[in-house]
Amino acid sequence: MITKKLKQILLWAGGISLCLVVVLAVHIYMVTRPKPPGANTRIMARIDIRQDISQQDADKIAAWLYQQNGVDRVMVNPATDIVVFTFFPVKTSAGSIVSNFQTAFHYPAQRYLPSEEEMKSGCPAMAQSFTTKLSGVFKHIF
């Protein structure tokens, strides 16, 4: 009698546990799937200019980029000859902005694309402290 009751309890517990594991797996799959860019998604891009620019050139570049459709924020550093901008991918693409930039300004410029190793190392703007690495591990797991 006790063995039959124990088997029934174990069978129910196993079935419920299996159902919970399946629900958890489906939930993790649905949450971690890549999502297409939405209306609020912003992407950052960088243009490296291969010649020296002055502050006046930087101001012209910033004004021109702000006039482009979908560009949200522009930062031009004349000391390093680097242009960084954010844009909405549903309105435009970085490739079209860079090609229009090259046509408009005739600077020897190209879009900077990070290598696969740089992409894996994370955002260079964030400090790589222990807490940042730990939070990155938790974000990757969950």
Could you describe the 3D structure shown?
By secondary structure, this protein is α+β, with helices and mostly antiparallel strands. The protein folds into two domains: 1-33; 43-114, Alpha-Beta Plaits, CATH 3.30.70. Helices cover 52% and strands 16% of the residues. The protein has five helices and four strands. The chain has helices at residues 2-32, 55-67, 94-105, 116-121, 130-141, and strands spanning 43-49, 71-77, 82-87, 109-111. Strands 2-3-1-4 form a four-stranded antiparallel sheet. The longest helix has 31 residues, at 2-32. It starts with a helix and ends with a helix.
Note the main attributes of this structure:
transmembrane; elongated; membrane; transmembrane helix; 2 domains; alpha+beta; 4 strands; 142 residues; 5 helices; 52% helix
CA-CA gap between termini: 44 Å
Number of helices: 5
Most strands sheet: 4 strands, antiparallel
Query: How much beta, percentage-wise?
Result: 15-25%
Keywords: Membrane, Transmembrane, Transmembrane helix
Secondary-structure map:
Layout: H1 2-32, E1 43-49, H2 55-67, E2 71-77, E3 82-87, H3 94-105, E4 109-111, H4 116-121, H5 130-141
Antiparallel strand pairs: 1-3, 1-4, 2-3
A few lines on this structure:
With 142 residues, the chain is of the alpha+beta class. The chain has 5 helices and 4 strands.
